Amino acid sequence: MKIEEVEGIIVRETNYSESSKILNILTKEKGLIGVMSKGCRNMKNKLRGVSRKLLYGRFHIYYKENGMSTLIEVDVKNSYSKILSNFDGTCYASYLLSLVEQVAGQNNDDSLFDLLRSGLDKINEGFNPLIISNIVELKCLDYLGVTPSIDSCSICGDNKNIITISSPDGGFVCKNCYTNQKIVKPNTIKLIRMFYYVDIDKISKLEIKEESLNEINEFINDYYDRYTGLYLKSKENLLRVIKKVS
Ligand SMILES: [Zn+2]
What we know:
The protein has 7 helices and 7 strands, in the order E-E-E-E-E-H-H-H-H-E-E-H-H-H. It is an alpha+beta fold. The protein has 2 domains: 2-79, CATH 2.40.50.140; 82-151 and 184-245. Helix 2 runs antiparallel to helix 3 (112-124) and helix 2 runs antiparallel to helix 7. It starts with a strand and ends with a helix. Zinc ion is lined by residues 153, 155-156, 158, 174, 176-177.
């Protein structure tokens, strides 16, 4: 085994034996990897504070290509303390970790790391965590190989006279192809396209009417249900918990 350094975010932690944890880390260099943090549950262990979900750092590890690597030490890049001090933020962040982990299970692409990192950075900066989650969800569809048709009509391919977006049809629907799909606000159509293409790091303002937000969220939930095979139970639970508390 050789010592390597990877940049990553811990997406899952699982207790192991008396005093250790297995960390699943989404890394920039190697996609999703499993790392053993030995003894980190002991009070005085130096890995104790850094062996937890949502920590973003540079991980020094004994790297094992087809097996469990071992953690040596961590340089913390962001502990996302603002997310952790906010209930909604923590719920959404936790949901995004589990979403991106599931996506990585199907497509372990290196660039997924930056998608997760940029989303968490924005939630940590105080942006609406539901909107940021919707943006990450839309972008994840690419990795799952089921990008919706949002440049032209999903039925005829024409890019003029788009009047709604329909999950059963797989995206935009134009006036000629329209039968009886649900009509969404013109702004919702525009926003879904913007969400898909936006560079998350460059977002500086997000003001979206509740009505559009609901339509976007509904479209994404239905789309995930139909085309991805991922069951977003954690999202349903999350929304239920947040509603109950607020
Ligand atoms: Zn059409």
